Amino acid sequence: MTNQKQTGSYYTPQYLASFISKRVLSHFESRARMSILEPSVGDGAFISELAKEENININLTALDINKVELKIASEKWSKKTASFVKTDFLKYSTSKKYSVVIGNPPYVKKNILTSKQIELSKAIHSNENLTEASVKNIWATFLVKANTLLAKNGVLAFVLPSELLQVKFAEEVREYLKNEFERIEIFTFNDLMFECKGQDTIVLFAYKKAELKGEFFTNISSKKSLEQNDFVLKNNNLLVKSNVKWTHHFLTSDELTFIDNLKKELKTVNDYSDSKPGIVTGANKYFIINKETENNYNLSKYTKPIIQKGLFVNGSVVFSDEDIQKLEKNNRPTKLLQLNDADKISKKLREYLDLGVLEKLPERHKCGIRKNWYVIPNISKKPDAFFFKRSHLYPKLLKNDSNAFVTDSAYKVGMRNGYDLNSFIYSFYNTLTLLLSELDGRYYGGGVLELIPSEFKKLPIPYNKISTSQFDNFTTNFENKSNIEEILIQNDYNILNSTLGINNEDLLKLTKIRNKLKKKRLRE
To answer: Domain Type II methyltransferase M.Eco57I C-terminal spans what residues (predicted)?
Structure first.
């Protein structure tokens, strides 16, 4: 789709629009008439489905910011009872209350919105006693405003990003929904429901009035099960009352209680270590170069070794100068261009800086706020260890035995007094901590696991003091492993029995829970 990032439009598959429309209309099957608002019609997928209703007289109001798409959608509605309005939903004003607000709102981050849209979003949230912190993406504002336009017995049905279930700013929005609706239904999916990279979606149904109250969840394993209504909605009170992210609704109350009791016994990453984000260059492709570029522009006296991303450190728990040399030989970008304000600019360096000007780097926000756009601030000293915030099969915490720095793809880790780095890294690799990484982090389409700084700092660690020889043995085993499960089998009993008194039966239970979380994230 053209300009998708700015418009935030991800079109709804017809079968999903059909399921949502039918489920909403079935709630009103005893009605002769009803009013429906769709605040962003897009290509009219919901319009097509609602137009098929023969028993209920629907008074439709359809909005969109795009005149062309609005016209296309209007052509899918043959009935007279409709109005199609070109407007931004954030600006839409009416005293009317609707039986249903339905649709797939745009997904646009705050930093891409116009200043007017941000101003309108803040006002909408503020009017509902929500803080400015909840204004992070336009879908959240659509959700809040849609609620204000519902009748007392109305229904809200939206396709939304899975952010609603797991990111920090959405906690406030979730609490808002719980207070505003008697019944909430969340549908999660095994398959990405949209043909767009990395956008994991859910479906939310929220009922102002309901006989059976509460928050209900289900996971849809296939398109077929959705079309045949082959699913069971289950209430999960413990999940909703706790701080556990709603993405993990498939965990039982027993499992959640078991995990919570173990967590209470442990100190966290922040108790043992200090962690900060790595270096923010403002333009990694420009400031992190390979050996060939370094030679071409005579930049060696201005560079330092650096690890650009976690993909480059697979397979070990120690990163050495030998490892950085291997990356260099494979022509990976391993050189950080570190310039100072006082540096004299040579002819060859000037040539390279001119390339940055051609790429308009001085106009980028992070470069533009510097005294000299090419001088990266806050480089500090090389880290003792680093934790990569994004991972695939398992999170990565490595000791840094090299002279390499690291980008903000990782957090720099240094130990607090009284704690040993080798023991900390060894203790990290156990089933409980990796399970809690899955539970406390968030994941995206494609199965990428991410822990933001606060989530990493709060991660519980069953700290075990080990000797240098034990760490060397652990390092060797880690490098020779076929998979991370081999390491967990070796480590678990030593780490978890000595700190928590966990027996083999408990270990098996933890392993099953972790596998359940990992399989859901990786869509296995």
So the answer is: 244-496
Please enumerate in sequence order all residues whose Cβ is within 8 A of that of 332, keeping only pairs 6 or more positions apart, or say none: 290, 308, 312
| Segments forming the whole domain that contains residue 96 | 4-250
pTM of the model: 0.84
Reading the block at residue 362, the tokens are 């001085």
**Which residue matches tokens 């990694």?**
284
- Sign of the Cα torsion 313, 317, 320, 326 reads negative
Pure H helices in 264-385 = 269-272, 284-287, 291-296, 321-329, 347-358, 365-368
DSSP 208: S
Judge whether 236 lies within some domain. yes
Number of Cβ atoms within 10 Å of the Cβ of 53: 17
User: Mean pLDDT of successive 10-residue segments in the chain (524 residues)?
Assistant: 44 90 93 95 92 92 93 89 94 96 92 91 96 93 97 96 89 95 93 56 95 93 86 89 85 93 95 96 96 96 94 90 94 95 93 97 94 92 95 95 96 97 98 97 85 96 97 96 96 94 95 94 83
Q: Roughly what angle, to the nearest 10 degrees, separates helices 504-522 and 484-492?
A: 160
Query: How many domains, the chain?
Result: 2
C-alpha to C-alpha distance for 269 and 362, rounded to whole angstroms? 37
Amino acid type, 2: T
Contact status, residue 143 vs residue 176, Cβ threshold 8 Å: no
